[in-house]
């Protein structure tokens, strides 16, 4: 952990991050940092959260499958296989590490396109991708600097279907001084709830639903899920 007063995200180094993830075993244990048991409760929490979003949307979208979703920073496709492929006809993948995407499997023919790039280099708006009913970002946006994250989020509304959702599900910093925390293991930052809210606002997004993830081990960072739409 650096001791300088530089902003935590200024230490992010994409090459170091990719080197770390490339040498990580391409399994649920690997992408969840040695806590594979968290996956089941995580996926169930996400399923419940999206079911609520869909019930509350007008007109209700609870009955039909979503046309297209995208799993961003997808790793080995844990979320795609365990949840997104249940609720969407097609799921695209954005993930920079090929040894992870090589492992992706889904039921039937739900797997769409695979983009082997980091989110900072994914330009769905410029490349005419989507449109997406659901853009899922979990345990990966800490790999981007604040500036990159805002720029990335700004690229999403043009590829979001009307009434669709951008979901961000991430660890929250529990720093006693309410600061973001840099982690040099995977060269990422863990942000505070306040930082997330201010970056979403800066990106022109509003929070339409948010909740703390339930059932996570108490000795890990708290996890929060946010559903976002254009302001
Ligand atoms: C903790 S894992 C989470 C994987 C998956 N979202 C999940 O929950 O199972 C972090 C993922 O972020 C990916 N990643 C690293 N740098 C990234 C970047 N710049 N943009 C998007 N994803 C990145 C890693 O390769 C890894 O797959």
UniProtKB/TrEMBL annotation:
It holds the Pfam family Methyltransf_PK. The lineage of its organism: Eukaryota, Fungi, Dikarya, Ascomycota, Pezizomycotina. It comes from Acrodontium crateriforme. Its EC number is 2.1.1.244. Keywords: Methyltransferase, S-adenosyl-L-methionine, Transferase. GO terms for molecular function: N-terminal protein N-methyltransferase activity. Belongs to the methyltransferase superfamily. NTM1 family. This is Alpha N-terminal protein methyltransferase 1. CDD domains: AdoMet_MTases. It comes from the Eukaryota.
């Amino acid at each position: 952990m650096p001791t300088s007063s530089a902003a935590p995200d200024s230490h992010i180094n994409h090459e170091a991050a990719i080197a770390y993830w490339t040498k990580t075993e391409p399994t649920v244990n690997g992408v969840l940092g040695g806590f594979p048991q968290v996956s089941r409760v995580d996926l169930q929490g996400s399923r419940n959260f999206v079911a609520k979003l869909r019930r509350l949307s007008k007109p209700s979208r609870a009955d039909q499958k979503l046309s297209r979703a995208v799993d961003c920073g997808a790793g080995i496709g844990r979320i795609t296989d365990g949840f997104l492929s249940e609720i969407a006809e097609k799921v695209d993948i954005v993930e920079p590490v090929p040894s992870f995407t090589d492992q992706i499997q889904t039921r039937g023919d739900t797997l769409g396109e695979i983009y082997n790039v980091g989110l900072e280099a994914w330009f769905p708006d410029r490349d005419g991708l989507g449109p997406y009913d659901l853009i899922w970002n979990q345990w990966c946006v800490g790999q981007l600097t604040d500036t990159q994250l805002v720029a990335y989020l700004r690229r999403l509304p043009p590829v979001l279907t009307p009434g669709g959702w951008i979901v961000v599900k991430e660890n929250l910093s529990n720093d006693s001084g309410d600061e973001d925390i840099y982690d040099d293991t995977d060269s990422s930052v863990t942000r505070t709830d306040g930082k997330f809210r201010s970056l979403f606002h800066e990106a022109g997004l509003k929070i339409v639903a948010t909740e703390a993830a339930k059932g996570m081990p108490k000795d890990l960072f708290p996890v929060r899920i946010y559903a976002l739409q254009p302001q």
